[in-house]
TrEMBL record:
Protein family (similarity comment): Belongs to the Bfd family.
Domain called BFD-like [2Fe-2S]-binding: residue spans: 2-51
Keywords in alphabetical order: 2Fe-2S, Electron transport, Iron, Iron-sulfur, Metal-binding, Transport
Species this protein is from: Dasania phycosphaerae
Matches recorded under Gene3D superfamilies: BFD-like [2Fe-2S]-binding domain
Name of a matching Pfam family: Fer2_BFD
Superkingdom of source: Bacteria
Cofactors, names only: [2Fe-2S] cluster
GO molecular function, one term: metal ion binding
Protein name per UniProt: Bacterioferritin-associated ferredoxin
Length: 67
């Protein structure tokens, strides 16, 4: 789904940027040129970023086997 109509950025691109190491919204915003024209996409883009980052953290292995 298109999140930023001005720059043709989709939710998949935001999720992919997080999966590729985007750790801050500013970094992802700069990489994808999000919210740089009219700014109306900023709120939903940040929500998708936060959701993607949280999913990534939830999927990380937070334990290890003790030998």
């Amino acid at each position: 789904m298109y999140i930023c109509l001005c720059k043709s950025v989709t939710d998949s691109q935001i999720r992919e940027a997080v999966a590729n190491g985007g750790k801050s919204f500013g970094q992802v915003r700069k990489e994808l040129n999000l919210a740089s024209q009219c700014g109306k996409c900023g709120i939903i883009a940040r929500e998708i970023f936060n959701e993607s980052l949280q999913n990534q953290v939830d999927n990380e292995q937070l334990f290890y086997a003790v030998s």
